[in-house]
Amino acid sequence: MPLCEACGRAPAVSFSAFNDRDGKPWRWALTCYCTSTRESYYVKFPDFFREPQHWIEHLTPKFWFSAERFLEALGRALEARVPAGAREARDAE
Ligand SMILES: [Zn+2]
């Protein structure tokens, strides 16, 4: 699991989107629960990796969404081996 990109102290649990009010599409970070009152949107890792196509189709039409920005965050999650954890969770169901 990646460490939270906000606090650096706990494992990240979700893709979280932040509206920095800079006119750009919202920024994505891998975060733990420390950002729950600051983030504008989130998708928990197990939910995303169980149904990635669903989430991509759900997010893409949103006016604030940037595929480029999300893919950067997804890349960081993949490099931190989040999918391995998600697969274990799925196998256990
Ligand atoms: Zn955190």
Summary tags:
93 residues; alpha+beta; 3-stranded antiparallel sheet; 4 helices; 15% strand; globular; binds zinc ion
Helix content: 40-55%
Bound molecules: zinc ion
Q: How much strand content do the residues show? A: 15-25%
Model regions low in confidence, pLDDT < 50 over at least 5 residues = none
What would you call the structural class?
Answer: alpha+beta
Order of secondary-structure elements: EEEHHHH
Number of spatially distinct domains: 1
**Largest beta sheet: what is the strand line-up?**
2-1-3
Radius of gyration: 13 Å
Overall mean pLDDT score?
91
Give the overall shape.
Answer: globular
Number of helices: 4
* Head-to-tail CA distance between termini: 20 Å
Tally of strands: 3
Biggest sheet record = 3 strands, antiparallel
Structure description:
This protein is an alpha+beta fold. It has one domain. It contains 4 helices and 3 strands. The protein has helices at residues 45-50, 52-59, 67-79, 82-92; strands at residues 14-18, 27-31, 41-44. Strands 2-1-3 form a 3-stranded antiparallel β-sheet. It is globular. The two termini are 20 Å apart. Bound molecules: zinc ion (ZN). Zinc ion binds at residues 4, 6-7, 10, 31-32, 34.
Quickly describe the structure:
The protein has a three-stranded antiparallel sheet. It has helices at 45-50, 52-59, 67-79, 82-92; strands at 14-18, 27-31, 41-44.
Walk me through the topology:
Elements: E1 14-18, E2 27-31, E3 41-44, H1 45-50, H2 52-59, H3 67-79, H4 82-92
Antiparallel strand pairs: 1-2, 1-3
Bound molecules: zinc ion.
